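Hi there, hope your week has been kind to you so far. Please have a think about how the structure follows from the sequence. I've dropped the whole record in just underneath, so have a look:

_____
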Amino acid sequence: MSGLKEKILNKKAVLGVCGLGYVGLPLAVEKAKAGFSVIGFDVQKEKIDLVNSGKNYIGDVVDNDLDKLVKDGKLKATTDFKDVCNCDCICICVPTPLDIHQEPDISYVKSSTEEIAKYLHKDMLVVLESTTYPGTTEELIKPILENTSGLKCGVDFYLAFSPERVDPGNLIYKTKNTPKVVGGCTPECTDIAATMYECVLEAPIHRVSSPAIAEMEKILENTYRNINIGLINELARLCHKMGISIWEVIDAAKSKPYGFQAFYPGPGLGGHCIPLDPYYLTWKAREYGFHTTLIENSMIINDSQPAYVVERTMHILNKYKKAINGAKVLILGVAYKQDIDDFRESPAIRVIEELIKVGADISYYDPYVSRFKKGNLSMTSEKELTKDLLSSKDIVIVTTAHTNVDYKFVAENAKLVFDTKNIMKDLNKNERIHVL
């Protein structure tokens, strides 16, 4: 047994987490709750100060857990990567967005790895959790670590990929109980990484033969969802033209006890995974002269869904002799999914941008997102969803199905409603309520 594996099993290893966002902070908290000493790393000083003050900023973390762990000395945070010297294991959980050309931006992964490499030491484990293209761990991370440190992967240190599986707001599956996939550069790398997760999580650990398998597995998860949502969004457009309710069609299909999984249409895709991950795959596929036609077509459909929502809005207003130019529109919800404050890649914001282009006067209400900024667009939520606010708007567009909104009140007081989430299905006999 390696010295590191023994330290992990005895909870004597110091575990590091690089990147204290939606993935990193919950993981750091779970590692500390499991009995390990944990050091969190982030380049944003405000996050470091909040963690060290025991103040939580991630919805899936229990405030009291964070505060107690910090006070007990089990968890601390720093911007100083010199503390990597004190870590036996470190997980990289930094963002992997797309650049302006819709190509992978792995600059955060690269810069984090370069910092870690300066302080990499023998018998240390490095795990990449950030979603990326197949090959990143072995083609990018491994050479940086080896060339900078002079150490050899699989001999002097251990390297693996284990994709994050975070679903903000999920009431059942959290970091603690979500199964984990682990693929190391060598069998021993896989074993060491899997052992670490087994000591932290209360979920099965699925071992695969290489980092590339684990990287591709993560892309498959979200590409599968992207394609199926694209199919439903396209069928929703067709059903609208045919005068058929796509929602009733889906409910009917769900009655089949095998061979069908329900997906639903909406204003577009949001969040940190589903809208982005397929781009990583299509980008990498081009290196092999391979075109992912089906995947790319689903992305085109989903990416155009916000514009389709605006087109439908124009037709609804036109039916009541109201032009979109100058129309007062209230967007109901800007978070990318219900009951969370996360607006990353939110389709609601894309809808707002498209409405602004055609001259609409936009405001929004979201009980979870008091304000947001995206590029040059910055907006603040209406404070309350009042009768006066609703009646003053030409149309209300439901873009996020928050459960703490009184939709009956909305239906009773709005002039027109365009419900892109079918959250008002029990009220849709009202001719002023239009459903996607």
Remarks:
- The domain at 3-209 is CATH 3.40.50.720 (Rossmann fold).
